[in-house]
Amino acid sequence: MTKQIAVIGLGLFGSAVAKTLAEQGHHVLGIDIDEKASSALMHLLAEVVTVTEVNEAILQSLSITEYDTVVIGITNIESSLMIAQMLRDLNVHHIVCKAKSALHGKILQRIGVDRVIYPERDMGIRVAQSLVAKSIIETIVLTPVQHLVTAPTPDTCIDQPVGTIQWKTPNGITVLAVQRGAEVFAHPGSTFVVRRGDVLVLVGKSEDIATLLT
User: Fold this and answer.
1) Percent helix, strand and coil across the chain, each rounded to 5?
2) Are the C-beta atoms of residues 79 and 15 closer than 8 Å to each other?
3) Helices 206-213 and 119-132, axial angle in degrees (round to 10)
4) Residue 106: partners with Cβ closer than 8 Å, 6 or more residues away
5) What is the DSSP letter of 192?
6) Does residue 85 sit in the same domain as residue 149?
7) Is the domain of 113 the same as that of 16?
8) What is the number of alpha carbons within 13 Å of residue 75 lying toward its C-beta?
9) pTM score, two decimals?
10) Are residues 204 and 141 in the same domain?
11) Which of 135, 141, 136, 138 has its CA nearest to residue 121?
């Protein structure tokens, strides 16, 4: 389903988000005060606008409330907070904002931002985890300690039931799904036996996942 998404701030983070969404076929509006940043995406996004500043009048003129999601990718903390408050006052459906720090993120949440993203922190966590457990295919950081990962079944778990795998770690991880070739077994029961070549989708504490996969 095609969505309409606006991205405010077309720096490294914002432009990456905007280009990826456009490549996936979504209608993307890019907004920036830097004409050079805007011009770089002119032929890649559905719409690109260069503004002198981001204020409520400009947002209204761009029909910002008609967009399914608005992403704030601005680095400046004061600006991102002001824009988040304006979007909330305009009753934008869904607001996503990049945060530079935990305090920045807390304030954004208090304003009413629907999702706060910590790109630098999350990338650091992914790199650290990949160095410890090199078999990890992908990591989604749910919280600083709770991660969702996909990884090949480790040798110690081959031909064992899911229940046994979940008991192998101190706090107990959860096997959300098992991919076997083109087939995916969602929420496998405790008696489901995993095989060599299966890919596991796991959720749990980072140290437990590292213990299981190393």
Assistant:
1) 35, 25, 35
2) no
3) 30
4) none
5) P
6) no
7) yes
8) 7
9) 0.66
10) yes
11) 141
